[in-house]
Design brief:
Layout: H1 2-7, H2 12-42, H3 54-65, H4 68-98
Helix pairs in contact: 2-4, 3-4
């Protein structure tokens, strides 16, 4: 592949960018988006070690007013909204970066 790129007159940077980097990024981008969303959702585990985070704040509110169902329903809705927003953002980035390949 590098011989073809060299024969076409591509520089080393162009060869890396067009032949190696962009196809590799296109292959890993869906998994990268999924991992980002998974990390965002798994961050609630960090609240156990006293990081101020959505679930930790919800626990504090529940301790004050004892309305756990309503509080956790709102927190669930917030996590769902954040997940859908990140999914839409990654889909838009994917379309913008890889539109010329089409289909994906």
């Amino acid at each position: 592949t590098s011989a073809i790129g060299t024969a076409l007159g591509l520089s080393q940077w162009q060869l890396f960018r067009h032949v190696v980097w962009l196809p590799a990024l296109r292959a890993i981008f869906p998994a990268l988006g999924s991992q980002f969303i998974l990390i965002m959702l798994a961050s609630s585990v960090v609240s156990v070690i006293s990081a101020e985070e959505l679930t930790a704040v919800a626990d504090t509110i529940v301790a004050r007013n004892f309305r756990s169902f309503e509080v956790y329903l709102v927190v669930t809705g917030l996590y769902l909204a954040m997940s859908l927003a990140f999914q839409a953002a990654f889909a838009a980035i994917h379309r913008a970066l890889f539109a010329r390949w089409g289909g994906a």
